[in-house]
Structure formats: structure tokens, C-alpha cells
Design goal:
12 helices, Rossmann fold, 3 domains, Jelly Rolls, 9-stranded mixed β-sheet, Alpha-Beta Plaits, alpha+beta
């Protein structure tokens, strides 16, 4: 199949037998029980599909994006409709995991005369949930500060317009707290930790571990994990959509914290996840904060220039059960590509658009060559590696992708593996490049992209995702860095723990954004202090780290300093 309205991974999925989907961690993401789930960009409301095709379920999101559940046999039919502009399969996303208030100049703005607490501002967390019983998320009367919780893992009473999960309002949450009944659990503690940094009031520590904006109110989405693995981009986008709709309904300023990401895409802002965030960020008084990811020190990215034949060597670890790999290049560059297995056997890739399957060294490789689309000018080569029928693991050893230039106009190319957290240790590019390792959707232009630094040593964290090495100043990513090493956060049951990762740098900025929006919007000092203007204020106040002249792809415009942003 070669569907110009679909991304390469979805085209490949539609071309392969179901038995191979189950062997691929990445391709299995499209499966939701016996049906497939896809993300769609449309020109209008798609609710009419449910009448024409009873097998289809539709959840319309903001800005004519939609989540569809349907049999895979109907995808070609649906995608051919003129109302369908583009479709993507879901991709798994992962946590960005691996005393910040003072180093971020936050303490000063919480004291008189400003006395900022985040009062009147909503903060949304689309994450692993929250520990509703933790005192840091309750007021002085023991009532929850969580206004709404959408638990996507419990299919009992979905919110209006959505296809799954159960919604709880503040009254239901308080009733459960009084009855000591558990409505929802945060099994990993990740969402609780992120919310604690941004919004915890420190009740459990008598104020010692108070978060940035302790009087904000929260909207929480607990994402479900497909097949028990990871949440997917469809769960993330639906959760973001839910939070924004609540803020619009109640006419409240909203900060969204996103501490998840993935590596699938060209990292140029053209995936549907990135396009969605860029569009919805314009809908109201919204500021979106995203962690830059923890791939900065991981060998999951490489690049090169085709002035001569280039060998891209990569190793596959022992006991690696599946793997995918992306190559992105300029469509105008004509090349010949060969894949060499550890035994030395080579396979020359077809120049034709579409799917090809080959077996090398007891490993089956499915390869999809995609054409540019209205949303993507680059050409993608997408590879899936499968063990053959009687084997559980891929052939380990050093593989090579040999790229021979034929006719070159641009010459640059980039490649990505999935997140390092999903790979065995020895699966890696042998000549990795640490730049352009932001996870998607933190690469979206409209979001405030946050990397991590160690506030004790005043140095960027090695793991923190980095922007492209050559980028115009106005497009520098990350936008800034915040403390992300050895951060004390709330944990179950009612205590605290120490964590590191950009997941926990982003909430410093989310909480700071809430304080700025309280000062500007709630206190009416600047009614337009949100979105790009708020990002600019944060950048203006950021402080340069020693040895990292700004702007740069490791620390962006510097380290968070909220007091300076309000001068």
C-alpha cells in the first residue's frame, strides 16, 4: 500500500500480516483490541462516519483533529474521503525520567509585595495520574485541589465526546476522600511527582517541600497503557484536548505540563502531534510546557552529509526482540541504499515507493519508502526488524546502512532509533550525534521546551535532550533549562523521594508559568501574558550558565530565573 495521506509507519502496518504486528513493539501501538486506532487531521467534523460505517467510532478533538477506532480494512476507504487530510498511527511515548526553587529565583516572587501562589490559574497534567490522597494536593480543609480527573484506564463513564475512561469531578473526589475510597491510583508515581513540583502545597512536610504554585487548581488525566506497555500519542493528544476544553468552558487561564515524548518523526514540527499543539496553543489563554526528553546522552540519533558514500553502522544487542529505525532526507536527493547484515550479506533497497520485505541473517526486515506529503517535505525510509518465525530475537552484531549519492541537491540526512528506554543497552548507532535529540512533541514551535540542568554544579544535565546544532536564533530549542537533577518530589503514600530527569525540570517552568499568569491575567497586570508572550518573558529572565553562551542547543536561552522575568 502507498497511501499519500498516511505516515510511513501506518502504510507499513497496513501492508504486513497481523502476525508481524504482534512481534513489533512499535507497530503493535496501532492495535486497540480487535480494531485499530488512528489520529486524523480533517477539514470538518467527522461524526457522519458513524452513520455510514457502524464499525467506526469517532472522537472529535479541537481544531478538526480526531481519534478514530475502526477495522483496518476500512482505513483505505476512509482515507480516500476528501474530508480526510492526513492520518497517523499512534506511537508509544515514554516518561522523561532518569533545591530548585532558590536557583530558579522563584522564592522571591512568592514573598511580599508580589506574594504569587498561582491562585486562579489551572494547571493540567496528562501523565500517569496523581495520588489523590497526598496532603500536598488538598487544601487546609482536606478538600482536593483536583477539579477534574479523567482516568483513561477505567472504561466506566467516559467524558462527553471521548471514547474511553472515566471522569471524576471535584465533588466525587472529595466524597471518595472522606470515605477513604480509592478512585484512581498513580502506579508509577511519575504524575504525582510532576504535579508536586509545579503545584504541591507542602502540607505533608509542613511547607518544607512546597511546590512552585501551591494555590493553583488541577486538571489531571491518567493515560492508559496500550497492551500494558506505554501510553501512545493518541492518549496524550486526547488528554491535552480534554484539559483545554475544561479551561475554555470555565474561562480560566491554563498551563499544560507534558513530561512525555517519543522519537518518531523528522523533528521538524510536522507530525500531527506537533501540528495539533501549534494550533490549540492559539485557542485561548493557554501556555504549554514540554520536557525536552532524556536522549541527549543516548546513542539513538545520527546524521551525515552525502558528499560521498556514507556507511551508517549500528549494533543490535543480544536478546533484542524488535527494532525500528527512521532515515529522513531531502526528497530532491537521489541515493542508492543497501543494508548489510553482520554476516556481510547485503540487500539493495527498492527505489519504488511502498513496502518491501527481505530476510537477512535470520532477521526479517520490512521497509517502507515514503513520498513527501502536504505536511512533510522530507522523504522517510522506515525500517522494522522482526525475528523470523522460530526465533525470539533479532540477529545481534554490527549492521550497516550504506547510502550512495546519485544526484545531490541538499545532501544532509538524519536517523533515529526509538527511545533508549525501550532498547537493550548495546543497540545503538556506533557514531551517534547528541544534537537534535529533543523528543516529540517538545520540538513543536509553540510549546515552551524545557531541558534540565544540575543546580548544584550549574551545568546542563548530560541526559537532557538537545536542539539542532545549527539553528536560527529565533528557533533555538530548548527554550530554557530548569533544575532536573536530584529533585525532591511527593511520593506514595504521603511521603517524598528524590528523582532526576527533564520530566521534573518541565514542572518548574509550568509552575512558574502559573505564577506569571496569576500576576498578569488574574491580577490584571498584563491580560495577554500567555503563550508566546509568556515564553518571551521566561527567556528574557533566563540566566546564562557558565561556559554556555546563549543561545545554544544545550541550554537554549539559559536557566529559569523567575524573579528576573518579572523585573
Amino acid at each position: 500500500m502507498n497511501n499519500p495521506k498516511a505516515d510511513a509507519a501506518l502504510n507499513l502496518s497496513l501492508s504486513l500480516p497481523e502476525s508481524l504486528h504482534e512481534k513489533s513493539t512499535s507497530l503493535s501501538a496501532v492495535l486497540t483490541g480487535s480494531v485499530w486506532e488512528i489520529l486524523v487531521l480533517a477539514s470538518q467534523d467527522l461524526s457522519f462516519l458513524t452513520k455510514q460505517y457502524p464499525q467506526i467510532e469517532v472522537s472529535m478533538l479541537l481544531e478538526n483533529f480526531a481519534l478514530l477506532r475502526l477495522p483496518p480494512s476500512l482505513i483505505p476507504t476512509v482515507s480516500a474521503l476528501p474530508q480526510i487530510l492526513y492520518i497517523e498511527m499512534p506511537h508509544y511515548i515514554s516518561f522523561e525520567i532518569l533545591s530548585g526553587k532558590r536557583s530558579s529565583c522563584i522564592t522571591q516572587v512568592t514573598l511580599p509585595p508580589l506574594s504569587l501562589t498561582g491562585n486562579g490559574v489551572l494547571v493540567g497534567f496528562v501523565d500517569s495520574g496523581i495520588d489523590l490522597t497526598h496532603p500536598d494536593f488538598q487544601d487546609s480543609n482536606g478538600n482536593s485541589r483536583v477539579l477534574f480527573l479523567w482516568d483513561q484506564t477505567r472504561d466506566e463513564d467516559p467524558p462527553d465526546g471521548y471514547l474511553f475512561g472515566t471522569e471524576y469531578n471535584n465533588e466525587q473526589i472529595n466524597e471518595a476522600l472522606r470515605a477513604r475510597k480509592t478512585l484512581s491510583k498513580d502506579e508509577s508515581g511519575h504524575g504525582t511527582a510532576a504535579a508536586g513540583i509545579a503545584c504541591g502545597n507542602g502540607n505533608a512536610s509542613k511547607g518544607r517541600y512546597r511546590g512552585i504554585a501551591p494555590e493553583t487548581e488541577l486538571i489531571v488525566v491518567k493515560m492508559r497503557k496500550n497492551k500494558g506497555l506505554y501510553p501512545r500519542t493518541t492518549e496524550l493528544i486526547s488528554g491535552i484536548d480534554y484539559c483545554i476544553r475544561k479551561a475554555l468552558k470555565f474561562n480560566r487561564p491554563l498551563v499544560l505540563n507534558i513530561s512525555f515524548g517519543n522519537n518518531y518523526g523528522s523533528h521538524t514540527g510536522n507530525s500531527l502531534s506537533e501540528l495539533y499543539l501549534n494550533r490549540v496553543s492559539l485557542l485561548g489563554r493557554i501556555s504549554i510546557v514540554a520536557a525536552s526528553g532524556n536522549e541527549g546522552a543516548s546513542p539513538i540519533h545520527t546524521l551525515g552529509f552525502l558528499d560521498q558514500t556514507v556507511n551508517v553502522d549500528f549494533s543490535i544487542s543480544e536478546r533484542q526482540t524488535s527494532l525500528n529505525m527512521q532515515l529522513w532526507k531531502d526528497y530532491a536527493d537521489a541515493v542508492r541504499i543497501r543494508l548489510r547484515a553482520p554476516s556481510g550479506i547485503e540487500y539493495t533497497l527498492s527505489d519504488n515507493f511502498g513496502t518491501n520485505i527481505e530476510t537477512l541473517d535470520q532477521t526479517r526486515i520490512a521497509f517502507y519508502n515514503s513520498a513527501p506529503s502536504p505536511f512533510q517535505r522530507l522523504q522517510e525510509y522506515y525500517f522494522e526488524f522482526f525475528p523470523i518465525a522460530d526465533n525470539f530475537y533479532l540477529t545481534s552484531g554490527v549492521w550497516s546502512l550504506i547510502i550512495e549519492p546519485i544526484s545531490i541537491k541538499n545532501g544532509s540526512f538524519e536517523m533515529w532509533f526509538p527511545s533508549a528506554s525501550s532498547l537493550n543497552g548495546a543497540t545503538r548507532f556506533l557514531s551517534p550525534d547528541p544534537y537534535n535529540t529533543l523528543t516529540i512533541p517538545s520540538s513543536a514551535n509553540s510549546v515552551i521546551t524545557v531541558g534540565a540542568y544540575d543546580a548544584k554544579t550549574n551545568t546542563p544535565a548530560d541526559f537532557s535532550g538537545r536542539g539542532a546544532a545549527a539553528m536560527p536564533n529565533l528557533l533555538t530549542k530548548p527554550d530554557l533549562v530548569a533544575p532536573g537533577v536530584s529533585i525532591i518530589v511527593p511520593s506514595f503514600p504521603g511521603g517524598y523521594q528524590t528523582v532526576s530527569g527533564t520530566s521534573f525540570a518541565a514542572p518548574f517552568v509550568a509552575g512558574s508559568a502559573a505564577l506569571l499568569m496569576e500576576w498578569g491575567i488574574v491580577k490584571r497586570n498584563n491580560l495577554f501574558l500567555y503563550g508566546e508572550q509568556l515564553k518571551t518573558w521566561l527567556i528574557a529572565g533566563a540566566k546564562e550558565l557558565p561556559g554556555y553562551p546563549i543561545p545554544n542547543p544545550r541550554t537554549g536561552w539559559g536557566a529559569l530565573c523567575l524573579e528576573a522575568s518579572l523585573r
